[in-house]
Amino acid sequence: MNASTHSQLARELAEAIAAGRHPVGSLLPTEMALCEQHGLSRYAVRRALDQLQELGLISRRKNVGTRVEATQPATGFTQSIATVDDLAQFGAQHTRVIRGTESVIADLALAHELGCAGGSRWLRISSLRMTHAGASVPLCWTDVYVDEAFSEVADLVKASPETLISSLIEKRYGRAIARIRQDIQAIALPAALAEALQADAGTPALQIVRRYFDGADAMLEISRSIHPAQRFTFSMEMQRNRD
Fold first, then answer.
1. For residue 20, is it left (φ>0), alpha (ψ between -120 and 50) or beta?
2. Taking the model in full, what pTM does it have?
3. Helix (H) or strand (E) holding 178
4. Which residue ranges does the record assign to the HTH gntR-type domain (predicted)?
5. Is 241 part of a structural domain of the chain?
6. Do residue 44 and residue 104 come from a single domain?
7. One digit per residue, pLDDT tens: the chain, 243 residues?
8. Burial of 13 (C-beta count, 10 Å sphere; 0-12/13-18/19+)
9. Deepest in the core among 121, 146, 186, 187, taking most CB within 10 A?
10. Sign, CA torsion 8/10/14/17
């Protein structure tokens, strides 16, 4: 196999486990063997195994190895995102199920919630995020608002459910994402989303709003994801400045 990213390796191993090629209770190949088989560094292989462990598919013990624990991911998901590239990998790990697209004009309430100009026009793409194809319980509901000038992206989204919309905009329109602002807030799960998310209205949920800007600081996209409690953990590591 050609050299791949750690996320591609994680996805391929997860698919192999689900297909029974690595049965529950068996050991995966060693890190060194995976490095040689997939053309990856040991660091990349460890990141891939970290992802599988976070999903509950494997366990790792010193002097024992990497043991397969389950064929399907656990409901919850932990994600560590530090860069724009890390966020792009998030899309590759999950399946998007489109629930609707429509043109909207931001009224004052929506403009305040999203941090955009009142009266601005957007294409809204609503979807459920699943851990994998065939999963029964969704990770989250996501509404993505893209500049109406990028309306053609709606067809691209349907054709590439594994790709982040921001990545599709970059490829189709040549508008590179330079920075992302992210706001995380604890909310009560809206009644309108309770059935789709298979959770009770009013129960705790995590709302993540991301705003995507290009190099000229123009906002190209806004996404709002709502995760029912215990289905998503956002992990962030901080280091002391040595200067």
1. left
2. 0.62
3. strand 177-188
4. 3-71
5. no
6. no
7. 334 577 788 888 988 998 899 999 999 999 999 999 999 999 889 988 987 887 788 988 888 899 998 887 665 544 555 555 555 555 556 678 999 999 999 999 989 888 888 999 999 999 998 876 667 788 899 999 998 888 889 889 888 877 888 888 888 888 888 888 989 999 999 999 999 999 999 999 999 999 999 888 888 999 999 999 878 777 666 767 665
8. buried
9. 146
10. positive
Regarding whether 130 and 87 lie in a shared domain, the answer is yes
203's tokens: 């129960």
Domain enclosing residue 52, as ranges: 6-68
Token pair in block for residue 242: 């040595």
- Backbone torsion region of residue 134, taken as left when φ is above 0, otherwise alpha when ψ lies between -120 and 50, otherwise beta: left
Which strands sit side by side in the sheet containing 95-105, from one edge to the other? 95-105, 121-130, 140-147, 219-228, 204-214, 177-188
CB 139 within 8 A of CB 232: yes
Q: Which of 68, 58, 50 is nearest to 7 (CA)?
A: 50
Residue 179 CB coordination number (10 Å): 11
